[in-house]
């Protein structure tokens, strides 16, 4: 079968103008190249390093916003395509949220864990990011908690959160500092 490609931002989240991020494309592949596309147009090709290729965006502008995807090629033939990753560059006007994990960052398998994203804005909604994942977890407004029951090794990783308001136009916060969840 064709290899499966994943695409994600490191660090995840919306970025401010002048900010930087890395688009990571990874798969369990042998050799080959990754080609990065933005809004359907080819941008860069990179040789695979291990199981990953990284494309950097620095000093970001609104023109860097768009729909990115990776194609994996061997000998000029496209063998697989990633999902689409929405990259956005926008002014960050809200205060930076604080992320906490309860009962703590190191837990035993099977434990009930709560991620709490706190921000000084009553009507803000927030997203919880797990590095390496395209999809974010949407935290309900006013609650800002995300609960995991019976955690296991697949929940391990680097988490962060980012908040927004839905006023006349969306306003965003910077991304919180990261927390590493370790499952024993």
UniProtKB/TrEMBL annotation:
Q: Which Pfam families match?
A: ig
Cite the entry's keywords alphabetically.
Disulfide bond, Glycoprotein, Immunoglobulin domain, Repeat, Signal
Which biological process, per GO, is one annotated for this protein? immune response-regulating signaling pathway
Annotated membrane-spanning segments are: none
The Ig-like domain sits at 3-86
SUPFAM superfamilies assigned to the protein according to its UniProt record, in alphabetical order: Immunoglobulin (SSF48726)
* Nucleus among keywords: no
User: Which PROSITE patterns would you find in this protein's record?
Assistant: IG_LIKE (PS50835)
Q: Does the keyword Glycoprotein apply?
A: yes
PANTHER family, alphabetically? MHC CLASS I NK CELL RECEPTOR, OSTEOCLAST-ASSOCIATED IMMUNOGLOBULIN-LIKE RECEPTOR
By what name is this protein known?
Answer: IGSF1 protein
Q: What is the lineage of its organism?
A: Eukaryota, Metazoa, Chordata, Craniata, Vertebrata
